[in-house]
Amino acid sequence: MQEYEIAFSGQIAAGAELSQVKAAIARLFKADDALLARLFSGRRVIIKQAVDADTANTYQVAFQRAGALLEVRPLHEGAVEEISLGLPEEQGRPAAGPAEPTAVDTPRSMLQVAPRDEYMAAFSDVQAPDFGVAPLGADLQPKRTAAAAPELDLSALSLAPVGSDLGQLAKDDAIEVPDISHIKLQDE
Description:
alpha+beta, CATH 3.30.1390.10, 3-stranded antiparallel sheet, 6 strands
């Protein structure tokens, strides 16, 4: 059974008035102002996921009657973004190909992502380096080098015999208590 995703981006039908569409959607969802603001923010909001074709059609008809354009797409089709590796043509590398391990001092190729919807299209011009994927079983930690032991002169140090005084200050056993016999509590 094919499942569908229902999403809304705040688009209204041609000739429809925004205030009337908002009122109709508010009645349809029993929505408050916060939910309406989120639905009509221009961002893609998923209304329902994993619904059958009849349910998706019911939602689409209800939104069309309200004057809004609903997006219904198959759930598992096109869910994966297409990613291709490539540098601009002027740098002389092929536009797409398998990821190769690169050294630290070599320039990295730039990752190019084909957007899956209008929301992701805003990120299509972002320049992000493609760090690639290490081959299976590769050691990702740099090799540790043994640190050289510091040269310390400990010949002047020795151990004290058991029970010896190591120079602590002697504690006073007698505590001097102040005279408070002249202090009295007053009754109110």
